């Protein structure tokens, strides 16, 4: 998968893309990340934003540098990307959207900042607008990182143990059952006997029952 990130702050991504699973995916050549700075596609004064027409606080990102960047990247790539605009007004991101995006060969994530985008960016881009939740962040960079992390770990081959994707929270519409590792007893808290028993059938039943119990207690909406 090719992931292009169009942002005013490419440096923000270096830490996140350079560690853990996202880094391993790149090293395995399962994903390629390309960062593009919108400012480099602006006019001579490198001006990317301006005051809103009609007044109001803050600044609005101008359409020209964003379209210039996206068109230049598109020409360079030579293939069509699925474009995603990060905005608090977008569709709410969830695991099933992550699964759909994980099947795309080429994603382009476009991050806004300050008070927002000129409306013509939305109109002209034909992008899928995504929000990571009902709160307002100062820009689309952290939401883009959230989307990248959720998507890249679903690309086949990224996680060594395929089972860890199949079993985990939300995939089966249930929260994950509790997990334990050694020691068998810690500060008086014991690992449930059945998990140590080696009886695979009973372990599976226990896991299923506790996934259900946990979901009922914490997220009854998922069962409905
Ligand atoms: N930009 C600012 N807040 C956001 C949010 N909650 N989701 C996506 N993009 C955003």
Secondary structure elements and pairings:
Layout: E1 2-7, H1 12-17, H2 20-27, E2 32-37, E3 49-50, E4 60-61, H3 63-77, E5 82-92, H4 95-101, E6 106-111, E7 116-117, H5 119-125, E8 128-131, H6 141-152, H7 162-167, E9 185-186, E10 189-190, H8 193-196, H9 200-218, H10 220-223
Parallel strand pairs: 1-2, 1-6, 4-7, 5-6, 5-8
Antiparallel strand pairs: 3-4, 9-10
Bound molecules: adenine.
Features:
single chain; 224 residues; alpha/beta; Alpha/beta knot; 2 domains; 10 strands; elongated
Describe the structure.
This protein has 224 residues and is an alpha/beta fold. The protein has two domains: 2-152, Alpha/beta knot; 167-223, Trp Operon Repressor, Chain A. The protein is built from ten helices and ten strands. It has helices at residues 12-17, 20-27, 63-77, 95-101, 119-125, 141-152, 162-167, 193-196, 200-218, 220-223, and strands at residues 2-7, 32-37, 49-50, 60-61, 82-92, 106-111, 116-117, 128-131, 185-186, 189-190. The protein has a five-stranded parallel sheet with strand order 2-1-6-5-8. Strand 5, helix 4 and strand 6 form a beta-alpha-beta unit. The longest helix is centred in the last third of the chain and has 19 residues, at 200-218. The chain is elongated, with a radius of gyration of 22 Å. The model has no long low-confidence stretch (mean pLDDT 93). The structure holds adenine. Adenine (ADE) binds next to strand 5.
